Amino acid sequence: MPVTGLFFLPNQGADSNPTQDILNRLTAHYSPTPAGSWTLSHRLFKGTPSSTPAPINGPEKSKPPGPRYLQILSLSHHSPKTYVAITATHAPSQTRVGTPASSNISAEAISGEPATIISIPQGASSEEFIQLILLKFGPLWQARQMLNVKEGLAFEIGDFRVRLGEVKQGVGGGAQTGRGALCEVEWVGGEADEEDWEGGGALIAGFWEGLGIRGARKVFDVPGLTEGEGSARQWCEILRVRG
């Protein structure tokens, strides 16, 4: 299974352009070969109090469970699947709220309770599922955000495949707000198992550090999972609302 790392660099103001900043660094430090384009669509729903299980009796009763999230993710390079992830409830001390931007450890790794992930066909089936959540399950799931990447750029750079795109928030066709830049760095020099994961992650970390970019949130892939599910888990982690 390939080793990948995700980096999100937020906008810092009206005049900031983190996507162009990363692109400038890539072309200045490496010799990228264009490798097509890619797209992303992501919807996030937060569980309402009525959908959250009541705390159990005993020592943990003073720690009410944290919120649950439902995420619907489509990536053009993982077509024809759309991924649906539902996070488990966690005590407040187990959530990612307040986690430093430099952390590359997911909330699931901390809690030991991975999200439940299923896949459905892209297209009509995924749109029907979204409408089902919006129209029939509104009392359980509150819509929080819609994110997309349109016409993202892909490059081949030695043993790495890099995808870069501007993240925008809002309904397609309407007013959208730029949130920042997403960059996926995939090491394609070989396959990695759990024993080699740290080595592959170090190569990706070194590649990113070579760009000299600071302030990005980082999420590395989750070992021990199938390729598609591991990538979906990684993307859902970095796209989930913080705070």
From TrEMBL:
This is Mediator of RNA polymerase II transcription subunit 20. It is found in: Nucleus. Belongs to the Mediator complex subunit 20 family. Component of the Mediator complex, a coactivator involved in the regulated transcription of nearly all RNA polymerase II-dependent genes. Mediator functions as a bridge to convey information from gene-specific regulatory proteins to the basal RNA polymerase II transcription machinery. Mediator is recruited to promoters by direct interactions with regulatory proteins and serves as a scaffold for the assembly of a functional preinitiation complex with RNA polymerase II and the general transcription factors. The keyword Nucleus applies. Component of the Mediator complex. Its main location: nucleus. Keywords: Activator, Nucleus, Transcription, Transcription regulation. It holds the Pfam family Med20.
